[in-house]
């Protein structure tokens, strides 16, 4: 029987880049699931290039969420499907040793 690697769950995507790219589009239809994907992606970043891309996608997602909240048709319960509103988190400071 083959052991499963439970630390790398790419949600069906073949790379971290693909996971990040698709999370920024998913936020438009299911923001809660996009936050779950971004939390998973944050744990998979292992070099500076990936960290910079992660931070760029976080900025994109958060500015989209900020703009949606300002729209007159925004309904928090409907948009977040009952979950508490969240924002993606920057996890990488490039002043810290290693990044």
What labels describe this entry?
single chain, 99 residues, mainly alpha, 52% helix, 0% strand
Question: What secondary-structure arrangement, pairings included, does this model have?
Answer:
Elements: H1 16-26, H2 31-44, H3 48-69, H4 76-79
What does this structure look like?
With 99 residues, the chain is mainly alpha-helical. The chain has a domain at 16-79. 52% of the residues lie in helices and 0% in strands. 17% of the residues are buried.
**Portion in helices:** 40-55%
Biggest beta-sheet profile: none
What sort of overall outline do the alpha carbons produce when their principal axes are compared? elongated
**Poorly predicted regions:** 4-8
Q: Secondary-structure element sequence?
A: HHHH
Secondary structural class? mainly alpha
Strand content: under 5%
Mean pLDDT: 81
For the record, give the distance between the C-alpha atoms at the N and C termini, rounded to a whole number.
39 Å
- Work out the radius of gyration: 15 Å
The gist of it:
With 99 residues, the protein is an all-alpha fold.
């Amino acid at each position: 029987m083959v052991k499963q690697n439970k630390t790398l769950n790419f949600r069906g995507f073949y790379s971290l880049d693909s996971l990040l790219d698709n999370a920024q589009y998913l936020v438009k239809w299911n923001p809660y699931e996009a936050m779950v994907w971004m939390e998973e992606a944050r744990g998979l970043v292992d070099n500076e290039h990936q960290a910079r891309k992660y931070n760029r996608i976080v900025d994109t997602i958060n500015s989209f969420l900020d703009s949606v909240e300002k729209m007159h048709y925004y309904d928090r319960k409907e948009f977040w499907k009952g979950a508490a509103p969240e924002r993606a988190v920057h996890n990488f400071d490039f002043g810290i040793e290693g990044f």
